[in-house]
Amino acid sequence: MRKTVLSSIISSLALSTALGAQANDLDQFVKDTKLNADFRYRVESVDQDDLTNKDSALANTLRSRLSVQTGSYQGLSLLVEADNTLHVTDDFNDTENNNTTYDTVVDPETTQLNQAYLQYNNFDTVLKVGNQRINLDNQRHVGGVAFRQDEATFDAISITNQSITGTTIFAAVANNRNSIKNENLEEDVILLNVNRAINNDIKAAAFYYDVKNLNGFDGADANTLGVRATGKVQDITFEAELARQDQEITDATPLYYHLAAGTQVGPINATLGLEVLGSDGGNASFKTPLGTNHKFLGWSDTFLQPDNGNGLQDLYANLVSKVAGVKLVGQIHSFSSDEGGDDYGTELGFLAAKTINNYGVSLKLAQYNATAESGKVDTTKIWLTGSAKF
Fold first, then answer.
1. 3 state SS of 293
2. Mean pLDDT of 57-70
3. How many helices and strands, by DSSP H and E, does the chain display?
4. What is the C-alpha separation between 329 and 314, in angstroms, rounded?
5. C-beta contacts of 261-266 below 8 A and 24+ residues apart
6. What is the pLDDT of residues 14-62, one digit of tens each?
7. Which residues face 91 on adjacent strands?
8. Is pLDDT of 274 > 60?
């Protein structure tokens, strides 16, 4: 009898403890659940010397974002993020509104779920299932293009593992890409990225990205294999990357490489770099259709992708400083073809940005000066942006 009574007491205590632990977990789940709001108003001006005599664009757009990030329960959590892009004025071609008499600003009016995924976090591993943002390395090959009002995301299953000290392994499969043009692109994507901290100053990465049924890409199916290293040696920061792309339809294997070095000169951080999207002898250009391309090759987006088989070289310099809490960036680009070395013109860029707590404002401009060999036109773009987060 005593054994039975003792067993009953132990069972009751165990059940009570388990229920209490679950109640505490649920209470913490509720406490950790956050509701966030994010607003970004932008005025964007585009003026191109277009032979078709299009009108200059002036876009006033407001992106409103509401997100719910739940707390974690037994390692499970949920993120739901809804976006709305509103056209305050409509004097521009957003690629959907049929205002083709104006220059283009790729910010379609839309309301949608930007992200909605279930996450499991345990055993040094994060598993995400659903519509999600994916930014890898410097976003050259895979990124969300957060600069645009409608961000690019993936319908994917992704795994991030950090079981090995100093090493992050990322893998994902996706069957749909939600583009900045408000498109659902049914592409089959495999992403694999391994980052390793060599020491406190140097990091290395290896990556493999495979895309099938790629929309608007002359290779149709393409895979990219590459390595990358970043770090600091004494007072010099560096970036070095090499990648090869196999394109199915063109049967070409163009190379990509990027070399950059920077140093601090008084209050200015100066960087000199060379980025090359190769051409495999003029057969086909290396392309980065999944990348945050606005960050590279000049802010005017004249060369989002090389649009012929001759590839592209960008010799550039960046100057970054801060004055009275205002971030200042100046940049210059000199473009040429990888095959033949034709002069493709130059671009100047300037940015001034200030953030105070949850509020930010920035002024950004880009001026591209074309050459006859480039097949492009002179382009001037100006952005005035204000943001607030709650």
1. helix
2. 97
3. 1, 19
4. 18
5. 261/236, 261/237, 262/236, 262/237, 262/238, 262/318, 263/235, 263/236, 263/237, 264/235
6. 444 444 556 567 788 888 999 999 999 999 999 999 767 889 999 999 9
7. 58
8. yes
